Each structure stands twice: as C-alpha cells, then as structure tokens.
Amino acid sequence: MTDSTATEAPTVAPRGASVRADLGQALGTLLRAYLQQAGTAVADLPGGPRGYQLLATASSGRCANQAGIAASIGIDRTVMTYLVDDLEKAGLVERRPDPVDRRARQVLLTPAGEATLAEATARLAEVESAVLAGLDADEAATFRRLLDRVTADGPPADHAACAGPPTC
C-alpha cells in the first residue's frame, strides 16, 4: 500500500484558521509596515528614506565617494547627484575631491548632518520597536541578530565602488 498523503492535494485551512505565510509574503508584510512608518519618521530629511540611507552610508566610512554610496544603497548615479545636491543645500553634507581619485567626489557629513543622522536613527529605532512589537525584547533581539547574519553579505549587487579602504 502507498502513503496516500504524498499524492493528496494540500488542504485549504478553514476560514479564520492561522495560515503560515511563505517567506516572501511574510517579509513583504513586515517591510511594508516598516517602510510606511519609517517614511514618516524621516520625512523631514531631504530625500526621505534615501536621504537617511545616504547619511548613514557616508557616516559608516564604507563608501566615501558619491559613486560608491550610490552603488551601496542601490540608486542610479544621476538620482544620487540630485540627492546629494539637496542634502548639501540643507547643510547636512559636503562634497570634496577624493584624494585617491580626483575625478570622484567624497560625500562627508557636516556636524549638522551628524546630528540629524543621530536624531533620525533614534526615530527609526522607535519604528523598529513598533514594527516588532509582537515580539518580546529577547525575541526582537534574536530576530535582529538573525536578520543581520542573513544579510551580512548584502545584496548580490556590484559593490566594487565600495571596495578598498575608506577614504577621508
């Protein structure tokens, strides 16, 4: 006799029953909740979330030049130019020639940019807490550790522009 469960079609859960979402659906739900609240939390920054990502990446020292930051945060270089222009007009960043490649421009935070980044980071930490409110503190910390581990290598994008030592 054969195991009939191997050939049976999956059953549909009764209405109201808990159904486990696939990974993409679960991540999408979590991401949408985070992005909605995060967008509000950093709406005062030029470029909103992208402006925050630029400030955070420039602050990290991983990618100091404009092209490297654009590659790191996944935006087109032309969009990057406008974003840096807006952040520069707001007094949050400044451009300097890259001493390693004079054709390239470094993007450096000003003191006002550092203060703005710290404030925005605190607001985003509150958003993270709200989005993960269904977890207790230990579970949230475990989730973040696991997420950091899964994403440690980053997306499979070409980050060659970020390669090498940080420049100042």
TrEMBL record:
Query: What molecular function terms (GO) are annotated for this protein?
Result: DNA binding; DNA-binding transcription factor activity
Name the UniProt key words of this record, in alphabetical order: DNA-binding, Transcription, Transcription regulation
| Domain annotation HTH marR-type: ranges | 20-152
One protein family per Pfam: MarR_2
According to its UniProt entry, the protein's GO biological process terms are: response to stress
- Record-given protein name: MarR family winged helix-turn-helix transcriptional regulator
Task: Please tell me the species this chain comes from.
Answer: Nocardioides panacis
